[in-house]
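Need tokens for this chain, all 107 residues.
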Amino acid sequence: MADTRYRRGLPYAADMAVYTRAIAGDNSELVGRLRRNVMLALREDVTPRQRECMLLYYGQGLNMREIGELIGIDKSTVSRTIKRGERRLRRCLRYGADQLLTPKEPG
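Here are the structure tokens for all 107 residues:
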């Protein structure tokens, strides 16, 4: 199971979803809030090219060569673009996590 870190796709995602639900309590509100914040960060904190590459890679399941051919850039550029976008998202979510995950009081 050590090589599963980089696996992706529907079967792996489904397995992880089942596993996560089995070991977790009811955290649907937290997960929903995190999902909304990731989408917000994707819209506001990454460049358009990073967003496009990440959505094609994670959302559509294309590999880096296919993305490069589709966009017209080299696959190594696609790889760097995705990694930079991931770092931006991670940094945004890490530093903003307290604000994003704390429920807002109705006011």
